[in-house]
């Protein structure tokens, strides 16, 4: 009986896309523009979202998808400077 | 002078209660009209649209909007659009409206738009049915936009989109995703029909200022790009010149 070949560890690029899919699909987040990077057993997420609650939800979802990873959440809440810029166009 | 405030990608959710309205309470002092360039909600749930409608009550000017891809995600886009309309927001998809503002008429032709890419690196109406459907959808949206723009009887005519009509406002985005951010067909439609400006969102990592291949100004008003509640674009009406100051940052 031949020995069954052991599956290779999941490549980091697939891990990252698994997280990105979850961040888009999970109703607590629903974000497409989050960058995910994996180095060893650490996951780094970055980008920007509209609210602090959504930033926190990203940490929750990534931890659920990758329970064995340490999550570094570098996502920013979009800062809004006061006032508007005014431009003459025509 | 007609002053038009614009912003896109506000991504309102249940956690946005009370966060948008304070900014919008100033808009009536700065602009005659507010345009919203899609991705108004987080994932297009009616509960999010309800929050948005309440937040928009702070804006004491006419509001015209298009939806974005996020507003379609829950499959409730018709409900979302209906709730916004009931809340006093004119939601456009392949149609135009002339808004009689206190400073004069402004024509707005609106459509969500779609992807496909830009000249030299874009999808073609060729091959598998799904690929043809993708490209044909963008072409149909662009045709609708062109007709809507051409039908606007106003000196100031604005094309309001979610997706980008040019790559010039995508600088900063990854080149690989340009086909998902917009289509040259939208820019071509605007260049054929003519417009004072094109306003769009969707490209959070892009840049604000660009132009169509025909030279029409394009502004990416995605809030993560503006980093402000909205920006204001001014147009002369009846021979007026000048804009109220430069920047009130």
Strand content of the residues of chain A, in percent? 25-35%
Number of helices of chain B: 9
Low-confidence stretches of chain A: none
* Extended strand count of chain A: 4
Residue runs with pLDDT of under 50 for 5 or more positions of chain B: 239-249
Level-2 CATH architecture of chain B: 4-Layer Sandwich
Largest interface: A-B, 23 and 43 residues
Q: Could you state the oligomeric state of the chains shown?
A: heterodimer
Run of helices and strands of chain B = EHHEHEHHEEEEEHEHHEEEHE
**CATH fold call of chain B:** Purple Acid Phosphatase, chain A, domain 2
CATH class of chain B reads: Alpha Beta
CATH names the topology of chain A as Alpha-Beta Plaits
Radius of gyration of chain A, CA atoms, in whole angstroms: 18 Å
Strand order of the largest sheet of chain B: 5-6-9-10-12-11
End-to-end C-alpha gap of chain A: 80 Å
Secondary structure class of chain B reads: alpha/beta
The 3D shape of chain B can be described as globular
CATH top level class name of chain A: Alpha Beta
Sheet with most strands: strand arrangement of chain A: 1-2-3
- Beginning-to-end CA distance, first to last residue of chain B: 20 Å
Count structural domains of chain A.
Answer: 1
Describe this structure in words.
The complex is a heterodimer of chains A (90) and B (249). Chain A is α+β, with helices and mostly antiparallel strands and 90 residues long. Chain A has a single domain (12-77), classed as Alpha-Beta Plaits. Chain A has helices at 12-25, 52-65; strands spanning 35-39, 42-49, 70-77, 86-88. In chain A, strands 1-2-3 form a three-stranded mixed beta sheet. Chain A is elongated. Chain B is α/β, with parallel strands linked by helices and 249 residues long. Chain B has a single domain, classed as Metallo-dependent phosphatases (Purple Acid Phosphatase, chain A, domain 2). In chain B, the strands form three sheets. Chain B has a six-stranded mixed beta sheet. A five-stranded mixed beta sheet of chain B has the order 4-3-2-1-13. In chain B, strand 5 (95-101) and strand 6 (104-111) form a beta hairpin. In chain B, helix 3 (46-56) runs parallel beside helix 5 and helix 6 (129-150) runs parallel beside helix 8 (184-193). The A-B interface holds A 27, 30, 32-33, 48-51, 53-54, 78-90 and B 3, 5, 10-13, 15-16, 19, 23, 30, 42-43, 70, 73, 156, 196-197, 204-205, 217, 219, 223-224, 226-236, 242-249. Strand 4 (86-88) of chain A pairs parallel with strand 13 (231-235) of chain B.
């Amino acid at each position: 009986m031949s020995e069954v070949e052991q599956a290779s560890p999941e490549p980091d690029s697939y891990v990252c896309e698994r997280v990105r899919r979850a961040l888009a699909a999970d109703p607590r987040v629903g974000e497409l523009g989050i960058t995910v990077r994996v180095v060893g057993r650490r996951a780094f997420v970055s980008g920007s979202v509209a609210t602090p609650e959504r930033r926190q939800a990203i940490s929750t979802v990534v931890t659920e998808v990758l329970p064995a990873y340490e999550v570094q959440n570098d996502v920013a809440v979009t800062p809004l400077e006061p006032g508007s810029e005014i431009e003459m166009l025509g | 002078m007609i002053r038009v405030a614009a912003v896109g990608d506000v991504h309102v959710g249940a956690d946005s209660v009370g966060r948008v309205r304070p900014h919008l309470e100033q808009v009536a002092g700065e602009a005659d009209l507010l345009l919203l360039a899609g991705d108004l909600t987080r994932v297009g749930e009616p509960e999010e649209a309800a929050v948005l409608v309440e937040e928009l009550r702070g804006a004491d000017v006419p509001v015209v909007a298009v939806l974005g891809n996020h507003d379609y995600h829950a499959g409730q886009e018709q409900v979302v659009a209906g709730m916004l309309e009931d809340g006093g927001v004119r939601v456009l998809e392949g149609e135009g409206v002339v808004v009689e503002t206190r400073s004069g008429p402004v024509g707005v032709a609106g459509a969500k738009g779609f992807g496909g890419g830009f000249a030299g690196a874009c999808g073609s109406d060729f091959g598998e049915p799904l690929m043809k459907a993708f490209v044909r959808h963008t072409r149909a949206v662009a045709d609708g936009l062109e007709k809507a723009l051409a039908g606007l009887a106003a000196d100031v005519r604005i094309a309001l989109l979610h997706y980008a009509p040019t790559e010039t406002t995508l600088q900063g985005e990854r080149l690989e995703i340009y086909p998902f951010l917009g289509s040259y067909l939208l820019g071509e439609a605007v260049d054929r029909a003519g417009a004072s400006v094109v306003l769009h969102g969707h490209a959070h990592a892009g840049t604000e200022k660009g132009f169509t291949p025909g030279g029409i100004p394009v502004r990416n008003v995605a809030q993560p790009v503006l980093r402000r509640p909205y920006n204001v674009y001014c147009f002369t009406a009846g021979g007026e010149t000048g804009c109220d100051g430069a920047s009130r940052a």
